[in-house]
């Protein structure tokens, strides 16, 4: 049963905005994003800021997936089709570039977008029938690219299917919760489920990016949260994710605060780029 606004009678995300510290995180994120958008350089060179944010976000997402390359190395390289770290960096660049093109589909069918992101991250089907679909019973996850969440067992295929379906329904119905909350839940749920056999981290961070763009919080995609997640560090990232997976109010609040900090750090990164451009140093 839906209300006139098209949302479920019960909005499961709304109470999360009332958890301790979440409202403060939402407000702090809003101020940090506004700071970037008000910068005088954004009025003249927003396309350059967006391009740089995409590059830095992709580099950071790849770093969290085990390919921690220097920014200038990512900038100068073009050979991302080989195996190993180069392939991971290439996947991160591709999914980041794809995000802006998937907004309209996301609003109608977020699970189709997740499948598309996985296909793009994996570099196409390549004869692998597991690409672009959730894992089936008995299928494992490549732990070299998607490390296990501490203390959280890998959900089985049936649980993955049910929870993905619930997430998709929730996103299509919409929520009154702030964008940070929705983005954090999408990110956390994908990483907790690890629904694909590989590249779950790249997909989860790209999905968070899509929510932040589509919600209007960061419509020009100049506040790369991936940068913040990487800057905080992989260990703290996984620890906060374990809090999300616990399902406790304290754990959820910790994860959402972590996501807020990531957006703030991404915003600060782009503010620094604006300052450098203003000085003529970048």
Automatic annotation (TrEMBL):
Q: Which domain of life is it from?
A: Bacteria
| Species annotation | Streptomyces hazeniae
Protein name per Swiss-Prot or TrEMBL? Oxidoreductase
- Where in this chain does the record put each Fido domain? 109-258
Record PROSITE patterns = FIDO
């Amino acid at each position: 049963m839906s209300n006139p606004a098209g949302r479920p009678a019960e909005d499961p995300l709304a109470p999360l905005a009332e958890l301790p510290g979440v409202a403060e995180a939402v407000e702090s994120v809003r101020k940090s994003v506004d700071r970037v958008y008000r910068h005088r350089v954004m009025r003249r060179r927003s396309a350059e800021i967006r391009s740089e944010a995409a590059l830095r976000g992709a580099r950071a997402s790849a770093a969290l997936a085990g390919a921690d390359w220097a920014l200038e190395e990512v900038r100068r390289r073009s050979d991302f089709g080989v195996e190993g770290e180069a392939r991971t960096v290439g996947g991160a660049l591709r999914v980041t570039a794809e995000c802006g093109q998937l907004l309209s589909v996301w609003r109608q069918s977020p699970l189709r977008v997740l499948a598309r992101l996985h296909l793009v991250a994996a570099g196409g089907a390549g004869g692998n029938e597991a690409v672009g679909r959730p894992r089936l019973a008995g299928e494992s996850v490549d732990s070299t690219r998607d490390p296990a969440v501490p203390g959280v067992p890998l959900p089985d295929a049936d649980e993955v299917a049910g929870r993905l379906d619930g997430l998709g329904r929730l996103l299509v119905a919409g929520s009154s919760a702030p964008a940070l909350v929705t983005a954090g839940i999408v990110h956390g749920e994908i990483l907790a489920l690890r629904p694909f056999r590989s590249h779950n981290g790249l997909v989860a961070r790209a999905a968070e990016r899509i929510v932040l763009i589509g919600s209007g919080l960061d419509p020009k995609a100049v506040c790369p949260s991936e940068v913040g997640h990487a800057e905080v560090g992989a260990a703290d990232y996984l620890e906060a994710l374990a809090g999300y997976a616990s399902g406790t109010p304290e754990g959820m609040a910790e994860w959402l605060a972590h996501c807020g900090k990531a957006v703030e750090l991404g915003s600060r990164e782009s503010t620094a780029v604006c300052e450098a451009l203003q000085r003529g140093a970048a």
